[in-house]
Amino acid sequence: MLLLFHLLGIALLFVPITYVSVWIRYRRGKIAPQQADSLSTVERERILYYELLQATDALRESNLIGSGGFGSVYKGVLRSGTVIAVKVFNLQMEATFKSFDTECEVLHSLRHRNIVKVITSCSNLDFKALVLENMPNGSLEKYLYSHNYFLDIR
Ligand SMILES: Nc1ncnc2c1ncn2[C@@H]1O[C@H](COP(=O)(O)OP(=O)(O)OP(=O)(O)O)[C@@H](O)[C@H]1O
Q1: pLDDT tens readout for residues 3-27
Q2: Which ranges carry the Protein kinase domain (predicted)?
Q3: Which atom of ligand 1 is nearest to the CA of 87?
Q4: Which residues are annotated as a binding site?
Q5: ipTM strictly over 0.90?
Q6: Is the CB of 74 under 6 A from ligand 1?
């Protein structure tokens, strides 16, 4: 009889523990796909290659703003009317792939009024570009190292 009480006690303990652990596993399982979903939403928000071509008039020479160590920057206008700067990475150089990934990662995680904002990116096997907020006053470098440009800091 005593043994029966013991077994009943164990069973009574076992049932809620099992229930709680199954519930925790179920919640974890439910949360993981939600995170994946939100990531894929970010992916989906990436701009399409043809949209970038449309915005920059097929990377027209007259839209070229400047060039840097890893590629060229073009001015463009999205269908919404937003003026953008498209940094197209030169994939001829091996280091460019790493630079694109690093710039994506760093600029996406930084948010400051003095740091250029990354609107989105466009990436496939043979084309990589960052869509940046357009800085109409151009490079800070020219203000820092030229005698002909002055910043109005009043
Ligand atoms: N968001 C922007 N808005 C307007 N012009 C920009 C923007 N980003 C870059 N530019 C222009 O394009 C030029 C090239 O920029 P880019 O970032 O490719 O070169 P960088 O600043 O020398 O950096 P890196 O060589 O490391 O890529 C800049 O000097 C600037 O004149």
Answers
A1: 666 667 766 766 667 666 666 666 6
A2: 59-154
A3: 18
A4: 87
A5: yes
A6: no
